[in-house]
């Protein structure tokens, strides 16, 4: 009795089943190309929004680096930061203290001059959380 030749489908050695939802598991996807070949599709890596203002431009800290399609699904709290200077990439560096503290002191001085000092300055200093 002659044995028949058995043809199996394409074999991928590097793509194993990963049961955990990790970043490496999400980057690869198998797809059938128009040339009837099975190819890997790699997801592009997202980039965080950048700032061009201030002495230290760069990526905003605290904003997730994702593709636009994934960003649309996120909550608003994960798409922006809630700190005093939102557009400044570094939270407590020279660029923040160099701009916000003098403006706070000027505002405090102007409130003292006009006589409405007590509750307004206290409220302003609580907002800035400096004093």
TrEMBL record:
What Pfam families does this protein's entry cite?
A: Ribosomal_L34e
Domain of life, source organism: Eukaryota
Q: Which InterPro entries match?
A: Ribosomal_eL34, Ribosomal_eL34_C_sf
Q: Which GO terms describe its cellular component?
A: ribonucleoprotein complex; ribosome
Which terms under GO biological process does the entry name?
translation
Keywords for this protein = Ribonucleoprotein, Ribosomal protein
Query: Which GO terms of the molecular function aspect are on file?
Result: structural constituent of ribosome
Look up keyword Ribosomal protein and say if it applies. Answer: yes
Q: What family does the Swiss-Prot or TrEMBL record give for this protein?
A: Belongs to the eukaryotic ribosomal protein eL34 family.
Under what name is this protein listed?
Answer: Large ribosomal subunit protein eL34
The organism named in the record is: Gulo gulo (Wolverine)
